[in-house]
Design brief:
- It is a single chain.
- The protein has 339 residues and is α/β, with parallel strands linked by helices.
- It has one domain (36-57, 113-335): UDP-N-acetylmuramoyl-L-alanine:D-glutamate ligase, CATH 3.40.1190.
- The chain has 10 helices and 13 strands.
- It has helices at 37-47, 62-73, 138-141, 143-158, 177-188, 198-205, 210-220, 259-272, 277-291, 304-314, and strands spanning 6-9, 13-21, 30-35, 52-59, 77-84, 91-96, 105-108, 131-135, 162-166, 193-194, 224-228, 233-238, 242-246.
- The protein has a 9-stranded mixed beta sheet, with helices on both faces.
- Strand 12 (233-238) and strand 13 form a beta hairpin.
- Helix 1 (37-47) packs across helix 8.
- It is globular.
């Protein structure tokens, strides 16, 4: 078996996507795809040439077979996906939008096979992975999946592996907002690279300014933080550096779902290739912008060839030594040097 570059885990659902706009109740025709923030990231990393292992559970049903077959076609190692004969594969309905607005999504995942992930799913072979990517979705599914998230992140970090974490908040899956904030921040403290959106960071930390949000996670044990600012770009901060990297202009937004996952693909891939944090944010912004120009959650994620041709030609000059500070972030960031 080839060495595992990246390990990730979570729930991949079957997704029925409306073929025409309008209320889901009135739509008659759908097509079948897969959905899952965690697996979107692993697909993107696989397309860039990394050996990626996927840890999950699916039901012993046609949707489970569809999920595994689709992920395997994307190059993922699915040998660590258990088939659960007692619980079904989760699925969702997704509306179609043509104006760039967020689509309507209805989930059917309660009691799903993936919600029964537990520490028993962890094998020693998985711990040999070079990097672990985690999100806040699995720990929201159930107590056992949360326990597995903590154990896997703890063991990987203790083993000297790098760990990235995207909060990916799903408030409806938590018993309370307070519990969500507490548990997500405990998990973030186990990661080297923390990747929240601005609104997520504000909710989780109580701070408004991106620099203060980043400082909160640096104080908790992170080595670096990148805060997604939507079309405006992203702010990053490490213990030695900070900056704002402008977003990539997009003429027409098709589907906003998956933009944050594309950002994570760019960050993780670039950092594992030993690029600087600023360069990683630039790649992350570009892949995120590419994702919103395609219909579907992961259809816009590039291959290695597309990254080489499109991104590297567009940014051949690389990064300027200084970055323009966008008004959303605030000029005050320039005066806030990392401790």
């Amino acid at each position: 078996m080839s060495k595992i570059d990246i390990l990730s885990f979570g729930e991949t659902m079957a997704m029925l996507v409306a073929e025409q706009c309008g209320d889901l109740a009135a739509v008659e025709h759908f097509h079948k795809r897969i959905a899952g923030a965690d697996s979107n990231v692993t697909i993107g990393l696989s397309r860039l040439g990394f050996n990626v292992a996927w840890l999950s559970r699916v039901g012993a049903d046609s949707l489970g077979r569809f999920v595994v077959e689709t992920l395997a076609k994307e190059g993922l190692d699915c040998s660590h996906v258990d088939v659960d004969t007692a619980h079904p594969t989760g699925f969702q309905f997704k509306s179609r939008t043509d104006d760039g607005s967020d689509p309507q999504v209805e989930y059917f995942r309660r009691g799903s096979a993936a919600s029964h992930l537990s520490p028993r799913s962890i094998t020693e072979n998985l711990l040999s992975a070079r990097h672990l990517h985690a999100t806040g979705i699995p720990p929201a599914l159930s107590a056992s999946a949360r326990e597995m998230s903590f154990e896997l992140m703890t063991r990987m970090r203790n083993a000297g592996r790098s760990v990235s974490f995207d909060p990916n908040l799903r408030p409806s899956l938590w018993a309370s907002e307070r519990e969500m904030i507490t548990e997500i921040n405990r998990l973030a403290a186990l990661a080297h690279w923390v990747l929240p959106g601005l609104s997520e960071g504000r909710l989780l930390t109580g701070f408004e300014d991106p620099a203060d949000i980043a400082a909160f996670y640096l104080d908790q044990g992170a080595e670096a933080v990148a805060i997604k600012l939507g079309p405006q770009g992203a702010y990053y901060r490490t213990h030695l550096d900070q900056g704002f990297v402008a977003g990539v202009p997009v003429a027409h937004v098709v589907d906003t779902v998956g933009a944050g996952d594309g950002f994570a693909v760019g960050m993780i891939s670039a950092l594992l290739e030993h690029q600087s944090f600023a360069e990683a944010v630039q790649r992350a912004n570009w892949i995120g912008s590419r994702a919103v120009q395609s219909r579907g959650d992961m259809e816009g994620l590039p291959t290695r060839l597309e990254l080489s041709v499109e991104f590297e030609s567009a940014f051949a000059s690389r990064l300027a030594p200084t970055f323009e500070m966008h008004s959303l972030v605030g000029a005050s960031l320039l005066a806030k040097r990392p401790a």
